[in-house]
Design brief:
The structure is a homodimer.
Chain A (H helix, E strand, L loop, with lengths): L4 E6 L3 H12 L4 E7 L2 H11 L3 E4 L8 H11 L4 E6 L4 H10 L3 E4 L4 H12 L4 E2 L1 H12 L15 H10 L5 H8 L3 H15 L4 H10 L6
Parallel strand pairs in A: 1-2, 1-3, 3-4, 4-5, 5-6
The first copy, chain A, binds a DNA duplex through helix 7 and helix 9.
DNA sequence: GGGGCAATCCGCCAAAAGGAGGAGGCGCCC
DNA sequence: GGGCGCCTCCTCCTTTTGGCGGATTGCCCC
């Protein structure tokens, strides 16, 4: 038999780590070689111990799991990292998987599923909690379905409308015609948009609009 | 106990259907209520029989599985459809899931996984063959796999470079500084870009650049 | 009933962009 | 060698933006 899989646990709940460790140690082919209680410590341990796989919580003090994940991967690009979290947020999921997590598991999974996932992840497979698959598919359907709260919120309805037209590349005069306004009013709106978005040209405003899906509303 | 789940099988391989049917009928909570050997027949059966779930092959004569899936869903938007195919193509996967398939399973899965998937799919979960999860994640990472041949090709290298800077929202003068050119030269490039792309303002050029991934090359 | 905010307009000004023309140099290909 | 495309730069001109200032109206909320 080959050497056991060397596992690093990163989670700020001591009891959870203890239980998990006991569970994993019962498997002949698994070995917990280290533990960390926050993201920063986790990154350090990952570098020193060179584990085969990391089980990583999201919500932690000092450094959260997302940042820790990114840090670990710059140091060890091929490292298998399984997110193990309570967050069912599709945003968290997408971020972690984009960053390069090998999997995203909810803490409500049963032991067999976890053990299976660990082995599969080390083999290179991507694994997801069943509940999260649908969320990933949803992202596929609307890749830029960014309902994030942004500076966009600070724009008034009229400003958003103006920006939307601006993004089509038309002049203030034409926007004025489209919105049935004086050109001077449009210029005021554009000024406010630039100020609120912290930018300095209508071109940047247009790019912003496109990137936030405001170009074809 | 509740009534069994009513299943429709759609696959052009008779033997495969027979075997699958035998397998499913062994389960007390499952019942195969219909079979079809091509997509068109499958859509017809789905309409008539109103099954709880459809197992649908991709590669079929007369009408392929993708089109059949779309057809079924216009008629019965909430219908659970599990793709059951040999295609490991990420494109097929993405298309089907975007269209609204409840899952995408490879035919190499074992019986337990299939049975479990059927029950989960009917419950509203999305299910994927383990191998396909990674492909879905890959799509998340690069939503626009840039298969473009476009007017972009008609731009000269210098024009593309200019456009790339333009898309950052900076002035001609600044572009000139960045490219170590006279502002007048930049203006010529911009003119050529507008003409070649068939547009009339730098804002439209910037939007075009962003939409074609030329903003951060 | 006053304060805040969105929305609408004005004017003025400097800077930037758009549009037209011409012109020289360079490399490539027939 | 001549033609062609690309890159470079120029002038002259009009239009558009960006960036001030200020003003009025209407609405909501406390």
């Amino acid at each position: 038999m080959t050497t056991p899989l060397r596992i690093l646990l990163v989670d700020d709940h001591t009891l959870f780590r203890s239980g998990l460790k006991a569970l994993l140690q019962r498997q002949a082919d698994l070995e917990v070689i280290g533990e960390a209680a926050d993201g920063l410590e986790g990154v350090k341990q990952a570098t020193q111990l060179q584990p085969d796989i990391v089980l990583l919580d999201l919500d932690m003090p000092v450094m959260n799991g997302r940042d820790a994940l990114a840090q670990m991967l710059v140091g060890q690009p091929g490292l298998a990292v399984l997110m193990l979290t309570v967050s069912e947020d599709g945003e968290d999921l997408a971020e972690c998987m984009k960053t390069g997590a090998r999997g995203y598991l909810l803490k409500n999974i049963n032991a067999d599923f976890l053990l299976d996932s660990i082995r599969r992840a080390v083999d290179g497979d991507s694994v997801l909690s069943p509940e999260m698959t649908a969320k990933l598919v949803a992202r596929l359907r609307a890749p830029v379905a960014a309902p994030r709260h942004s500076e966009l919120d600070s724009l008034t309805p009229r400003e958003r409308e103006t920006l939307s037209h601006l993004a089509r590349g038309i002049s203030n005069k034409e926007i004025a015609r489209a919105l049935d306004l004086a050109e001077s009013t449009v210029k005021v709106h554009v000024q406010n948009i630039l100020r609120k978005l912290g930018i300095s040209s209508r071109v940047q405003a247009a790019v912003y609009a496109v990137e936030h899906g405001l170009d074809k509303p």
